[in-house]
Amino acid sequence: MAYFPAAVFAAAFLMPHLFHITFAEGLSRQTLLQASWTLPLFLLLMALPVPVIWWAAQSQAEIPIELPAYAIYMVSEHSGVLVLAFIGGLAAASGTMIIIALALSGMVLNHIVLVARPPEARTDLYGWLRWLRRALIIGVIISGWLFYQSVSHQPDLSTLGLAAFVGMAQCLPGMLALLYWPGANRNGVITGLVAGMSIWLWGLWLPLFVDLPLPSLPFTPLTPADAPLWYQITLLSLSINILLLICVSLFSRTSDGEKSAAEACSVDAVIRSKRMPLEAVTVADFTLHLAQALGDEAASREVNRALQALNLDAQERRPYALRRLRDRIQANLSGLMGPSVARDIVDRYLPYRHDDLPATDDIHFVESRLEAYRSRLTGLARELDGLRRHHRQTLAYLPVGLCVFGDDDELLMWNNALTELSGINGDSIIGSRLDSLPLPWSTLLGKALHSEATPLYKEPAHLHGQDYFLTLHTAQLSGYDSRGGSVVLIEDHSEMKRLEDELVHAARLASIGQLAAGVAHEIGNPITGISSLAQNLRYDTEDPALLETADHIQQLTQRVTRIVNTLVSFAHGGHQALPLPCEPVNLSMISEDALHLIHLARSSDDARFINTCPEDIVVCGDAQRLTQVMVNLLSNARDACQSDGQIQISAGITEQRAWWQVRDNGSGIDPAISDRLFEPFTTTKPAGKGTGLGLSLAYQIISEHQGRIDVASPPPGHTCGTAITLWLPLYQQDDVKPHAQDSDC
Question: Which of 189, 314, 344, 554 could form a disulfide with 174 if both were Cys (CB 3.0 to 4.6 A apart)?
Fold first, then answer.
């Protein structure tokens, strides 16, 4: 009886009812994984009483042990035990008969009936299949009863069960070879199966109908003396089956199709789906094509079922997603109609489009399968998979945007940096064609892939409502064992482009500053002449109207002279070497000069400026550099205000120090940048509208003047706006060019 546990484990794969319970009813992968250990455990528990029964048989030979129910009869003579045993036996027999009928009807339907007569487009395809299967269930039950009635001597159930099991066991060598030996081929499997089945028919099946003399078996000397006939037949048939399978497979040619099938079915196989386009390019095309075979209702239902299982959208157009949808539909139809019919339907109505380009492996599909299979890898395969994951993560977390395309322009990779830059999740576009990518990426990447001039420097792109400048580097993937394609690196050079523009602008301003002195001289000469003529006019006439006109001319020429001198003074400013000169600077006059400069760039939406600085406040410092500070503050305040905004300049003296304030009623300072307000390049203005250097420069100049800057947004007592207050040392009469360490300057 030592061979019994092995037979029980093999029965899970060979007997129709056990196979149906284990695999046909478990549709989810999680269920199959659970069944992979729960079913062997269940069968092991069933086999545990076998040694006990065998020991009892050895100790008391007169006890019949043909059926496990006999052991129950020997436990107790109580009638309740007999009733319980009868109910249990009846339930087990009826349950087994029902499961066998369901399993065999499904097998006959999928592998015989539907293969002989493929399903047609029907209004109620599911109802037709359901009634057809019900008819086959009745046919299976009647066939079993007729078979039992046709046997000659009415054998017991154990004899019929053993005969059936040995016959099904002839499939076991071919099944194990398919899973663990890719070198096996069709010729070897069929030859071994025919030989094993012949021995089984001669030894166990035909004796059920007629009495046949059995000659001496070749393995009789190697078997126990009390070994039953079925054991010897099983040993002989399986041995011949395995021997012929190995010999014929070794000495016959294995076709490419058999190698591919063996590799796909092997337990160590990784299915490598090919990246080929489908004739159907949308989900609606799937429904339309399948309706020719299944009907409109069934086609729509199967497509929606596959979409829901894959969590895909009905508007999906990615080739990779459509290939997955095709595979899922085929798997669902396999459970409904059998794998052969499902494959024929899918191959006929959802075919691949064979273009001129060679089909390559679907890398994304292979990696998804490896991720699911990773826990079962061992040894070198596990180390190689770890290396693959490391390289994959290196590319995924590269701080530079990276994407990979196949030779057919299908997107294979989209890393995290590119996801952050583009705002597009890679999982949503992996498998898309280049021309179906969102704008502007289809244009940018297409230009990089198909342009001979590479890399492309500072290509303009409008992203997230702003202008970006991207540099794209392209490299062809070629060489030994390469699947081809192209890799594109995308660098964001927007900040560099803005700095370059600001440098150009600064150089332009420097040139204007160099020309300002000459321009002022050229303007000053005629202005001086006009002023002289106005003064002469006052002495040449006593007409009140002419005198008034001469006064106006002289006032306007003085204003022009003052504006030009202020502009020249501001343009000539540069880096001041220490020690900082300490000169008397009138805050009211500096404010007026800054307002003159601000008004030179007035626009249609200018705010209203108010200067309330007292004329008697004098600080110690550099007039030109303080003018630059005020110009920067007024410019920022104007940008923060609306067209009807108001900006006020005020000043005062507190505790022997002067305060100088610019207050506006604009939008205020963004709290997100309040902690780094004086850092260089900190700005909330759109690209090209500001550099973020104004406040940083003002902070530096005020610090050189031994002062400080206070910022309040909004100011106390107000609900909006910003107030920036500058604290500066007052000018003392005995101050003579103090050094930087002096407390006053």
Answer: 189
CA pair distance 623, 31, nearest whole angstrom: 83
Pull the structure tokens for residue 600.
């030179």
Structure tokens at 551: 């006064």
**What confidence tier does 425 reach under pLDDT thresholds 50, 70, 90?**
confident
DSSP string, 612-633: ---TT-EEEE-HHHHHHHHHHH
pLDDT digits (tens, 9 = 90+) for 387-421: 888 888 888 888 888 988 887 788 888 888 888 88
Cβ contacts of 385 within 8 Å, gap of 6 or more:
370, 374, 377
- For residue 742, name the pLDDT band (cuts at 50, 70, 90): very low
Q: Domain spanning 576-745: which superfamily?
A: Histidine kinase-like ATPase, C-terminal domain (3.30.565.10)
H or E stretch covering 97: helix 79-108
Per-residue tokens: 239: 């041995």
- Region 416-437: what's the mean pLDDT? 83
* Beta strands, E only, 451-520: 456-463, 466-476, 486-492
* Helix (H/G/I), strand (E/B), else coil: 488: strand
pLDDT per residue as tens digits for the range 247-273: 998 888 888 777 766 665 655 555 556
* Coil, strand or helix at 67: coil
Measured at the CA of 115, the angle between CA 18 and CA 331, to 5 degrees, comes to: 60
Q: What is the DSSP letter of 177?
A: H
- Both tokens of 741, joined, read 């360490």
Tens of pLDDT, residues 538-584:
777 777 777 777 777 777 777 677 666 656 665 555 444 445 667 78
- Residue 202: what residue type? W
Concatenated DSSP letters of 70-84: HHHHHH---HHHHHH
Q: Is residue 201 a contact partner of residue 268, using CB atoms and an 8 Å limit?
A: no
pLDDT at 75 over 90: no
Mean pLDDT (whole number) for 627-642: 82
Helix (H, G, I), strand (E, B) or coil at 709: strand
Please enumerate in sequence order all residues whose Cβ is within 8 A of that of 117, keeping only pairs 6 or more positions apart, or say none: none
Rg (CA), the chain: 46
Whole-angstrom Cα distance, residue 416 to residue 393?
Answer: 10
Tokens of 400: 């530079």
Q: Which two tokens stand for residue 701?
A: 């100049």
The answer, yes or no, to whether residue 27 has pLDDT greater than 70, is no
Burial class (CB in 10 A: 0-12, 13-18, 19+), 95: exposed
268-327 pLDDT tens trace = 555 556 677 788 888 888 888 888 888 888 888 888 888 888 888 888 888 878 888 888
Tell which CATH classification among 1.10.287.130, 2.30.30.280, 3.40.50.1970, 3.40.228.10 matches the domain 493-572.
1.10.287.130
| DSSP for residue 278 | B
Q: How does the average pLDDT of the chain come out, rounded?
A: 76
Q: Where are the domains of the chain?
A: 1-9+21-68, 270-359, 397-492, 493-572, 576-745
d(CA 24, CA 32): 10
Q: Which residue has the tokens 């040993």?
A: 235
Half-sphere exposure of 79 (CA within 13 A, CB side): 0
Identify the CA nearest to 133 among candidates 302, 335, 282, 274: 335
Q: pTM of the prediction?
A: 0.56
Which superfamily is assigned to 397-492 in CATH?
A: PAS domain (3.30.450.20)
